[in-house]
Design a protein that fits this description.
single chain, 5 helices, mainly alpha
Length: 135
């Protein structure tokens, strides 16, 4: 208070929003790929019902890891947070983090474990209406 009884006013600083790195945000948007359920099901079917060619093993592993990231993100954002969801997310993260084995048949076995794990997570997401069933 001043000697006259009036309240002292302090100047109010104008609020400025935090700096956004728009270039980095734009780059992330450009790299984003939506989940393609049809391509996912085609890859899962190929891995589970056939044997990919030796030169395709690493390509399948990379694509399955990509599907894993998408499905886990969808599950975290939209699926009911219960024991089933948590178990499926943990399984998907575990199998995704494993290196592809060097031997051909060991690598095929690894692809099949990834495909089965991701198929179970996908079915759970379909059942909880987080994603549409792929044709």
């Amino acid at each position: 208070m001043t000697a006259t009884g009036a309240l002292e006013t302090q100047p109010i600083e104008r609020w400025t929003p935090p700096a956004l790195d728009l270039a980095a945000m734009l780059e992330k948007l450009r790299q984003w790929k939506p989940f393609d359920g049809t391509a996912f099901m085609d890859d899962v079917e190929t891995v589970l019902e056939g044997t990919p060619a030796e030169e395709q093993v690493e390509d399948f592993a990379e694509r399955l890891r990509g599907y894993s990231m998408c499905l886990v993100d969808i599950a975290l954002a939209h699926a009911p947070q219960n024991d089933t969801t948590a178990r499926l997310i943990e399984q998907a993260r575990t199998v995704r983090s494993e290196e592809t084995p060097g031997g051909f048949w060991q690598a095929v076995g690894h692809l099949r474990r990834m495909a089965l794990t991701l198929d179970a997570l996908h079915e759970h997401l379909v059942a909880t209406r987080c994603v549409k069933e792929a044709a």
